[in-house]
Amino acid sequence: MREQIYLSLAHMSGYEQEFIAEAFRTNWVVPLGPNVDAFEKDLSLYLGNARPVVALSSGTAAIHLALLLSGVKAGDEVICQSFTFAASAYPIVYQQATPIFVDSESDTWNMDPHWFRKAIEDRLEKTGKVPKAVIPVHLYGMPAQMDEIGSIAEEYGLIVIEDAAEALGSEYKGIKCGTFGRLAALSFNGNKIITTSGGGALICRTPEDVRETIFYSTQARDDAPYYQHSRIGYNYRMSNICAGIGRGQMKVLDQHVTRRRRIHDLYKELFSGVEGLTIQENPSPDYHSNFWLTCILLDPEVTGVTPEMARQYLAGHGIESRPLWKPMHLQPVFSASPFYGDGTAERLFETGLCLPSGSALTDEQIRYVAECLMTCMEENKKNPVRVKRLRSGLLRTNKKKKKDETITLLYSIYRVISWMYYC
Q1: pTM
Q2: By the 8 A CB rule, do 345 and 103 touch?
Q3: Residue 255 contacts by C-beta under 8 Å, 6 or more apart in sequence?
Q4: Which residue, among 95, 113, 96, has the nearest Cα to 104 in the 3D structure?
Q5: CA nearest neighbour of 166 among 181, 155, 177, 154
Q6: Tell me: the pLDDT tens digits for 354-364?
């Protein structure tokens, strides 16, 4: 029996135990300590551009504090990419501001600069002021068109907050994602490029940003000998234990990114020549995605299958896959929020699928995923591509299953005829 193939599991290096053991040995098991300091330093050095980093409890917390530091408050509007996970947009509501959703373009699947500008102009006309900030997302690790987005934001005075939760290790024009905006968020959830079990980080720009972030993330305690609070704070700081996991993960970050890119290349090779199947790729040499997840688009008219049919088929063969993110402007919770676009995000959602991409997966497992998907298309008799089987056993298994089903059907017919005869 084959081992279950998951979408993107955590991939431990072995170094993590050393740093965790050190925390227990020295009794640093609180939301501060040597591991937190060292993990923040490692991240800052990796990102470059002298960007300081504050380790937090989640990527969502990082976006929330970025909005707080940017002065977003009740009555403000914040433009957000619609094609993303809900955590990109939730913190806007935490600040009692209004999310304004913008569509994607088809090259990177990220925020479309054209609709970004249209949204600003229309909000200015309708409300008399421009939105306070913009949250572009580097979806599935693919960098957004940051030159165009940054230029428009600067023209109208919007603060850029990058959602780089899925893009650690990705680069745009040779610069690490997460270092383009005024502030940026990272995520270290269990399914990301590296993990701290649960956690995130805010990429800051100045020492003052760091001080404010630490202040708000540790319950906003005033500088007094007793517990005094003049502002509302949050319990958002990362623990020293989780940071120890992060330190161990940083030692293999480059390996994890390299492996995910290799998995993407292998999928691309295996799907070469398959009509109706499109794999997401870097649009030009300016883009260097970490390919956190390898994603595909399926044309049902050509392949004979929808993404949901493919997902269910793969699940039946012990393979986890997932639909692309459902756009925020289609979510019931955001039904009243304005949206600017032409339906690109909706089309991507309707035709897209995320394939297993974890760095611990073997080439053999990736080949099995690809073969199962192509078999699914072939069984629907609409795809002219006939793939040479690397696993001849798969066809034999399918033929035996069909034979057993035929025998069962014939026996059922026999029993019905016999019953009618004797009655």
Answers
A1: 0.89
A2: yes
A3: 359
A4: 113
A5: 177
A6: 999 999 999 99
